[in-house]
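Hi P.,

Sorry for the delay on this. The queue was packed all week, but I finally got your sequence through. Input first:
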Amino acid sequence: MDSLPVFRGRFYHTIDEKGRIIFPSKLCDIFAEHYDNRLVITSWDGYLLVFPYKEWASIEEKMFQQSIIRKEVREFQRLFMSGAVDCVLDSQRRILIPPSLRKEAALEKEIVTAGMGRSVEIWNKDRFEAVIEKTSMNAEIHSQMMADLGI
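Then the structure:
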């Protein structure tokens, strides 16, 4: 049985003055092997979420099954989907982050790219480290979750 492609790892880098970032080669290898270098980026909770286009299409399909008559569905689509942009990894492993998304995630110089399984996150380095520190303080909660998973 083939294993599913998984994005993992933390990578520290910079964003240039034009808003381009170089995607870590380890993550690019997964895109090249399992996807077609097309990706979709959207903002979420102070950072950016990056999905291979194929994974994004699956999210959209699930959203299309929801009734837009429901206010919470429209609100979620407005927040999550309306700001989404299509990108392509170029030959130098770069992607261009549009100004609106850079602003929402406070991407100015130092960034962190984090593999999150089926997606990738792009963070302002200071925000990322603050979240990691806060999360580390809740080790007991996470220990219980791991135990519940049988780890």
